[in-house]
Amino acid sequence: MKKRSSGLLLHITSLPGYEGIGTLGEHAFKFIDFLKETGQLWWQILPLGPVGYGDSPYQCYSAFGGNPMLIDLKELMKWGLLEKNSLIEPPRCKKSKVEFSQIASWKYPLLRRAYHAFSENESQELRNEYRRFLKENSWWLNDYTLFMAAKKHFGGTPWHEWEKDLKFREPGSYEKYTHLLEDEVDFRKFLQFCFFRQWSALKNYAAQNGIGIIGDLPLYVSTDSADVWTNPDLFILDRNLMPEKIGGVPPDYFSETGQLWGNPVYNWGRIRERDFDWWIARIHFNLRLFDMIRIDHFRGLESFWSVDAGENTAVKGTWEKASGFELMDKLRRQIGELPFIAEDLGFITPEVRKLRMDFNLPGMKILQFAFSSDEKNEYLLHNHSPDFIVYTGTHDNDTTRSWFKNSSEKDRKMITQYLPACRGNISHRLIQAAWSSVAIVAIAPLQDLLNLKGDARMNMPGTPSGNWVWRFCWKQLKNKHTEFLKEITEKYNRMNC
User: Fold this and answer.
1) Which structural domain, as residue segments, surrounds residue 303?
2) Residues near 141 by Cβ (< 8 Å), separated by ≥ 6?
3) How many structural domains compose the chain?
4) Is residue 350 part of a domain?
5) pLDDT tens digit string along 102-141?
């Protein structure tokens, strides 16, 4: 990340398509073509894991697995695993929103049909590829697929409510349930094979076209995940394997009562005893998938907000020390320069800044945060420095159009006076401001390029439902958007060439 560049933020689920949800199929490839046409270098996405509670990509059943809902069914037809008439009746869903449960009810039976066809498939090439996938990924795949199979077997309940022997992974229980649930385990392995085969094709296409993909690594993992079930010693749990302490952040810009995420906090002492093995494996796995990794809640690698599990808000908590320096130092000795972006938003201490700078990691500047105080505001353009990524907003922010509309009259006046004098809507003026920054990379959500209203917001932090559903349609992306993006990308020396 040594040259000025730019890109767009868009999660896979937000892509258009036949299935009611964005997938790893033709529309993802078409979006890469659009990025190349407009001179962009980066496509930033959200976590790709199998979503759990609230359909949030930040609450997944695995830190390693892929989301089966992103598998493209038309691609499975090309592999000979689905008949051409399989997709005659797609789910009747809104084109602008993902209806997760309705789509899953339609899609999973088709995925199972593809799985049964795969067991009878005569393609030796495909079978050999599948065997290699199982061998190379067994270290996480076996635990994850048994976890998902057992979850279905026990009616979808969290793992801490399973039968005692499997919950505590007592001797013999793993083999017992692997045999009992063999077909479901194999189905889940097949889904992961399909996901990563399709992701690999998309990633290779992006690389061929000069597009880098920025992945997103949540600091925490979900309580109800294969990761906690498999490695309970890495988390602060009680004797019944329930979290004693949970993660979040104290009151901030997004919430007066803070954010209480419900994820178990790490037992950093035990992590050090294990020489960071799980974390190291997780990072290396993600480096195979992405060109750059945004570490969500980076400050939690220096110290983290720990709240008693019984609390209803994140107001009452304490800052506890983490071992991020040792982890990052070990990674740097293994791979050299670290291709990470530090999400350093919120209350950031000198210690967190030092951790970021010790490893030469770019931080983040959000322009929507720039107009809340005076000229010393660190998010204002004149206070930027090259070692940052500048965003108009992130997936947690409102769209720029809605943000501006809901700002006070005083703030709106300050915003319009400060932004570069150019014609166009407020969203494009803020994008142009980001592209003009000295920050090494500029990123805007696609919603801002399209100048969309607040109903296109991706996430409202602190709310448990109704998030992550926005999708766009190709007809919304007009020539004027393409020309505008190309023009400012060239004007501010960010062209991918």
Assistant:
1) 231-361
2) 64, 65, 134, 189, 192
3) 1
4) yes
5) 999 999 999 999 999 998 877 888 999 999 999 999 999 9
